[in-house]
């Protein structure tokens, strides 16, 4: 287990063990590991853990990885055959792709011609293989000890069919969009599965979004129906979702709503592997959210496989992912990935710190599988959404996992459908803060600003060289933006928008976004979205938003605001600006700091120099760089003078 992995030219090779000190799982990491600048300290899976793991060694990983790169068609076909297909896919073209804009439109297809249904594969297939009485979903309510409930695979299937019949009855057909605006109730995955069952395309909108954001998404995808509930409890608050939807429907001039009793059997609609499964809006570097489109077959195969290996899934596991189904993690790793594996999944309605910060561990103990001791039921921990810093990693490992559980720090994106760079917990040693190595079939490359692939120890822009089954196929209604954003910056590659470095042992270290996207507690927010919300305020003339480092949230939103001529700054106005952002996007996007700006640093052509604003926001005033190209360099001094006022 001390073998090291090295990633060279897209092929992983085994290198001689480095001179690193190893810590075997089971030993706590001391705080002086934090001082280890070269990340030499490895956390090695115990022999017993590895022995029982699906991927027990670097060699096994390398063997499978090598095949996945050299023979992707064979590798993925073998896995895909484990699912139910009404019609097989075209065996002579398991996938086809053009990722190089210079050779024509970007185009990705997997398992084309195959017909299947992901809802059937999540439910009917599990029931038919004899697991109908296994618990599919445990639901834990916001208030401890109140209303917890569960559904077996049989019961879940019936509930999904009822809703599918209802949707058909009100005229929803294959290919129609359905917007789902629900909190973490069992009805949320039920709705997703019901849509998939009849071939409708779900678009879940996170229930923390405001009426305006919801309206924007409704206008873009033009759903036949919007599904919501009256209200949700989150922490001590009750949020009236239906009122928000009414507001949104007013804004988008549509109508609809109700969910009664319908028959518990519903024939599935067989769809092509490349028929759309869902749209999920995500933030980019311009104001308009992007409708990321995922299709059926490849997404199904990819989420199921990544779930299985990254969490070393065992049928006796009880699995809990704290993400909300309003985000991609909730799509791939609350709903589809686990259910495709026949797993028992916990869904939690509320906030992780309600009634207090012990709630998560309360839930872990409550749903423990066999053992009776606190957190002893934990086997594997997961982390996602932002770089986990080594000290948070250590806390997670030592305190939560009792220095016993491997951590799968999974790097991926809404666009990638599933995990891309992730530990396989039994296969190789971990380094606190590194997402480690690529998943099967994924060829990450790090390029410099000219798009030249860097080798060995390096740092640059993270791209991906080929396609993988879970890749998104387009941005809804805007294939041109899809190409411009992801495939034009570095022709021939998919560009992730992230910075990344690779150390001498081949481990990957994600360093955060390199574009105008901010990551606040794992919520992805475009600076332009917050700016347009701010400037919609009648007293705001101009706004520029940057991200600043934040100890708890990863990044916080910092807004420079120029007011309309003659309007004085006041605390009341600051509050009203923040409120505007909350109303237009949602509370999670509210700026932490408003910095009054008499003017913004702009180039002579009028482009805001965000580089300078970032330095001012993080008070790195010695690193402002060259300001002489600004139209008015004195603005910088004025901003600095106002920094702490
Ligand atoms: C961005 C994607 C993927 C589900 C949740 C977020 C950042 C994601 C990690 C990680 C470092 C990470 C990246 C990425 N990110 N996972 N393990 N380590 N950074 O999905 O909203 O599409 O955001 O989240 O910056 O580009 P998303």
Give an overview in words.
With 645 residues, the chain is an alpha/beta fold. It contains 18 helices and 31 strands. Helix 7 (187-197) links the parallel strand 10 (177-181) and strand 11. Helix 8 (211-221) crosses helix 9 (241-252) and helix 10 (297-310) packs across helix 11 (328-340). The relative contact order is 0.11. Residues 282, 328-329, 384-387, 409-414, 435, 496-498, 510, 512-513, 519, 522, 524 line the site of 5'-O-[(S)-butoxy(hydroxy)phosphoryl]adenosine.
* Strand residue content: 15-25%
Major pleated sheet: 4 strands, mixed
Broad structural category: alpha/beta
Helix content: 25-40%
The rounded distance between the terminal residues' Cα atoms is 55 Å
Cα radius of gyration in angstroms? 25 Å
Shape: globular
Bound molecules: 5'-O-[(S)-butoxy(hydroxy)phosphoryl]adenosine
Order of strands across the widest beta sheet? 9-8-19-18
Domain AMP-dependent synthetase/ligase: 130-368, 374-467
Keywords: ATP-binding, Cytoplasm, Ligase, Nucleotide-binding
EC number: 6.2.1.1
Subcellular location: Cytoplasm
Features:
645 residues; alpha/beta; 4-stranded mixed beta sheet; 4-stranded antiparallel beta sheet; 18 helices; globular; binds 5'-O-[(S)-butoxy(hydroxy)phosphoryl]adenosine
Topology of helices and strands:
Blueprint: E1 4-8, E2 11-15, E3 22-24, E4 42-44, H1 47-51, H2 58-70, H3 72-80, E5 95-98, E6 107-110, E7 115-116, H4 118-122, H5 124-131, E8 135-140, E9 149-152, H6 153-169, E10 177-181, H7 187-197, E11 201-204, H8 211-221, E12 225-228, E13 232-234, E14 237-239, H9 241-252, E15 271-272, E16 276-282, E17 290-295, H10 297-310, E18 318-320, H11 328-340, E19 344-348, H12 359-366, E20 381-384, H13 390-400, E21 407-410, E22 444-447, E23 458-464, E24 474-475, H14 479-487, E25 494-502, E26 508-513, E27 517-520, E28 523-526, H15 527-535, E29 540-550, E30 554-563, H16 571-584, E31 593-596, H17 610-617, H18 634-641
Parallel strand pairs: 3-4, 8-19, 10-11, 10-12, 18-19, 20-21, 30-31
Antiparallel strand pairs: 1-2, 5-6, 7-15, 8-9, 13-14, 16-17, 17-24, 22-23, 23-25, 25-26, 27-28, 29-30
């Amino acid at each position: 287990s001390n073998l090291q992995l090295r990633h060279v030219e897209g092929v992983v090779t085994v290198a001689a063990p480095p001179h690193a000190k190893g810590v075997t799982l089971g030993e706590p990491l001391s705080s002086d590991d934090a001082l280890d600048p070269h990340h030499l300290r490895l956390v090695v899976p115990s022999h017993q853990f590895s022995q029982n793991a699906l991927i027990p060694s670097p060699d096994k990983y390398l063997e499978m990885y090598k095949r996945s790169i050299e023979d992707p068609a064979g590798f993925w076909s073998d896995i895909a055959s484990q699912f139910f297909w009404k019609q097989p896919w075209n065996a002579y073209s398991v996938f086809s792709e053009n990722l190089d804009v210079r050779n024509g439109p970007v185009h990705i297809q997997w398992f084309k011609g195959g017909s299947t249904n992901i809802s059937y594969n999540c439910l009917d297939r599990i029931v038919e293989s004899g697991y109908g009485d296994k618990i599919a979903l445990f639901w834990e309510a916001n208030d401890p000890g109140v209303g917890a409930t569960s559904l077996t695979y049989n019961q879940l299937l019936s509930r999904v069919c009822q809703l599918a019949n209802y949707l058909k009855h009100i005229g929803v057909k294959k290919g129609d969009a359905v917007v789902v605006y629900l909190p973490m109730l069992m009805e949320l995955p039920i709705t997703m599965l019901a849509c998939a069952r009849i071939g409708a395309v779900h678009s879940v909108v996170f229930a923390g979004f405001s009426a305006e954001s919801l309206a924007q998404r409704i206008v873009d995808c033009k759903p036949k129906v919007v599904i919501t509930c009256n209200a949700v409890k989150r922490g001590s608050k009750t949020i009236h979702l239906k009122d928000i939807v009414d507001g949104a429907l007013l804004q988008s001039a549509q109508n609809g709503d109700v969910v009664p009793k319908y028959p518990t059997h519903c024939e599935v609609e067989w769809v092509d592997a490349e028929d759309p499964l869902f749209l999920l809006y995500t933030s980019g570097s311009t104001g308009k959210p992007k409708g990321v489109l995922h299709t059926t077959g490849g997404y199904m195969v990819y989420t199921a496989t990544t779930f299985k290996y990254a969490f070393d899934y065992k049928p006796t596991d009880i699995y809990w992912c704290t993400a909300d189904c309003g985000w991609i993690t909730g799509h791939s790793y609350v709903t589809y990935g686990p259910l495709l594996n026949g797993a028992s999944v916990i869904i939690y309605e509320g906030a992780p710190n309600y009634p207090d910060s012990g709630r998560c561990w309360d839930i872990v103990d409550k749903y423990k599988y066999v053992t009776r001791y606190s957190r002893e039921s934990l086997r594997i921990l997961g982390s996602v959404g932002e770089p986990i810093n080594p000290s948070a990693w250590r806390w997670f490992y030592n305190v939560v996992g009792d220095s016993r559980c491997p951590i799968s720090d999974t790097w991926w994106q809404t666009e990638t459908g599933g995990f891309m760079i992730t530990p396989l917990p039994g296969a190789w040693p971990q380094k606190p803060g590194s997402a480690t190595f690529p998943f099967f079939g994924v060829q990450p490359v790090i390029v410099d600003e000219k798009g030249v692939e860097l080798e060995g120890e390096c740092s640059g822009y993270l791209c991906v060289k080929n396609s993988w089954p879970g890749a998104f196929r387009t941005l809804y209604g805007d294939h041109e933006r899809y190409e411009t954003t992801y495939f034009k910056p570095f022709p021939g590659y998919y560009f992730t928008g992230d910075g990344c470095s690779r150390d001498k042992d081949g481990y990957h270290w994600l360093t955060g976004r390199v574009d105008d996207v901010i990551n606040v507690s794992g919520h992805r927010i475009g600076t332009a979205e917050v700016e347009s919300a701010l400037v919609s305020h009648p007293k705001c003339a101009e706004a520029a938003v940057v991200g600043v480092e934040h100890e708890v949230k990863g990044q916080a939103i910092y807004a420079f605001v120029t007011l309309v001529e003659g309007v004085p700054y006041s605390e009341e106005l600051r509050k009203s600006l923040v409120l505007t952002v909350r109303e237009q996007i949602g509370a999670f996007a509210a700026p932490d700091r408003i910095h009054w700006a008499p003017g913004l640093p702009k180039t002579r052509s009028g482009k805001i120099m965000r580089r300078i604003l970032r330095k001012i926001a993080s008070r790195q005033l010695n690193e402002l760089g060259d300001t002489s190209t600004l139209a008015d360099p004195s603005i910088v001094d004025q901003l600095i003078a106002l920094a702490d006022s």
